[in-house]
Amino acid sequence: MLILLCPYCGVKAEETELSPGGEAHLKRIGPDGTAEEFEAYLFARKNLKGVHFERWRHAYGCGKWFLAARDTHTMQVYGTYKAQTAHATDEIVANARQARPEWVPDWPQASEAVVG
Amino acid sequence: MPSRRYSVFAIAREALRQHQGWNRAWTSPEPRDRYKVVIVGAGGHGLATAYYLGRNFGITDVAVIEKGWLGGGNTGRNTTIIRSNYLQDPSAAIYDKALKLYETLSQDLNYNVMFSPRGLIMLAQTEHEVRGYRRTVHANTLQGVATEWIDARRVKQLVPIINIDGPRYPVLGGLYQARGGTARHDAVAWGYARACSDMGMHIIQNCEVTGIETENGQVRAVNTAKGRIGCDKLALVVAGHSSQLAAMAGFRLPIESVPLQAMVSEPIKPCMDVVVMANTVHGYMSQSDKGEMVIGGGTDSYNAFTQRGSWHHIEETVRALIETFPMISRLKMLRQWGGIVDMTGDRSPILSATPVGGIFVNCGWGTGGFKAIPGSGWAMAELVAQGRPGPLAAAFGMNRFREGRFIDESVAAGVAH
Ligand SMILES: Cc1cc2nc3c(=O)[nH]c(=O)nc-3n(C[C@H](O)[C@H](O)[C@H](O)COP(=O)(O)OP(=O)(O)OC[C@H]3O[C@@H](n4cnc5c(N)ncnc54)[C@H](O)[C@@H]3O)c2cc1C
Ligand SMILES: [Zn+2]
Description:
CATH superfamily of chain A: Folate-binding superfamily
Largest sheet of chain B: 8 strands, mixed
Strand order of the largest sheet of chain A: 3-4-5-6
Shape of chain B: globular
Mean pLDDT of chain A: 92
CATH superfamily of the largest domain in chain B: FAD/NAD(P)-binding domain
Number of strands of chain A: 6
Bound molecules: flavin-adenine dinucleotide, zinc ion
Number of helices of chain B: 12
Family (chain B): Belongs to the SoxB family.
Radius of gyration of chain A: 15 Å
Number of domains of chain A: 1
Structural class of chain B: alpha/beta
Number of domains of chain B: 2
Order of helices and strands of chain B: HEHEEHHEHEHEEHEEEEHEEEEHEEEHHH
InterPro entries (chain A): SoxD, SoxD_sf
CATH topology of the largest domain in chain B: FAD/NAD(P)-binding domain
Order of helices and strands of chain A: EEEHEEEHH
Oligomer: heterodimer
Largest interface: A-B, 26 and 23 residues
CATH topology of chain A: Folate-binding fold
Strand content of chain A: 25-35%
Number of strands of chain B: 18
Cofactor (chain B): FAD; FMN
Organism (chain B): Paracoccus fontiphilus
Subcellular location (chain B): Cytoplasm
Low-confidence stretches of chain A: none
CATH class of the largest domain in chain B: Alpha Beta
């Protein structure tokens, strides 16, 4: 059974206590979005086989939404983090890269951001 | 060498010769450098696409490339329910085409697919379902698909082992399709494979496609475990791995992959000669020819590629089915397994051209594509051969998600079957 640590209340929650909420970090499209943007936002999921960032709600616990990094192929959990976060923590990235050295995050890294 | 025609005379002749004269049902060739059409995925849908390309369009320069063994994906893992009682017109058209083709498939392929139109009941166990299924019966009547609403007494007559007075899930009636039933899943894949091989097509197993080569927005080749294979046209028919193949070609699909589970019991004497689906509790059951009770459950609710699924889903299914079929509580389960199903937002499939010239996709059959195999192959062959969809595939283009033209089957197909 899948077990995720709720980053709010600290409970190790079993799958049956949780409701999944699909891919995380989606950018909401505003009223002037194009049909393509709405399609991408509503339907075109990454559906990755590997490192996946996703939303979960601690439904039968504290009730809060949080985020998890999970491997959809091996079911390994790389870590959980709070929902009000732009992307996963460095520690989670390190965990994921340890298991999958070929994987690279698809957001700008701190070092690159400083240089840029 | 083409395989020998199967018949009672062939069996008699071989019986006298210690069965030395049978050929292999299909060949295992090394791939050529290029084919006119390459199909990725030797599940039922990929093989049926190849078959109807040859039969209906005379295109036989075809390779079907499979990373594992043919029929080893969802086709060989499904619970084989066949029906065509969907709600929307485009669905009724393609699923009923499939059912009609199933009715004569054994003769067409000269291969016994054991199609068994034993009848199928979808139980209504809530008031909501009663209304939903009555609406489906009306829709089916307009579509010319014969289905009927039956009351609980009639359900009990058809399924004597059922408990219609359960405290949590009473049976209020059902949607009945007398033409529905089951077929042997492996035989469907094997029958198509044999017919394709006889037409000179290549089925290349143990050969994973790892990349797709394009040039100026047009497909050129696939890279595989057995090298580069050129093609004029490429059909991606890989169910749960559709997003992965699309990513190789540089586009995205409105698909999410989730595990769906099933299990079979020890074999018992014949006790149920119809297929029963109980969608409120996400469970369905039929009895195989060997006597096993074949039980399917619900999908996991998060993306995964483990052909296994969550334990608690099995528990939920069994717990609920035991109320409706008390006698199964004493059965031992022999095997449990999972397949990775490809879910779309409207629970309808995608048969479509793609942003890349020459690449076509057939996916999104989700929890219910076994029943569609012949109709889907028929429509996909039309799409690949002509470069544009025929009447069966027209409504199932991938742009419908952009254009808001959904084919909403969440009532008829939102559950696993
Ligand atoms: C447990 C379960 C029960 C079901 N019950 C029913 C039912 O009762 N009735 C019903 O109608 N439907 C049912 N379904 C759904 C049905 O099984 C599928 O919709 C249907 O079999 C899909 O067929 P396919 O040919 O598209 O996919 P598959 O049979 O999965 O074939 C796709 C093939 O593509 C191959 N592939 C993937 N990636 C690559 C690659 N990179 N290179 C080469 N090959 C690749 C795979 O190995 C696989 O063999 C069920 C499914 C499951 C899992
Ligand atoms: Zn919590």
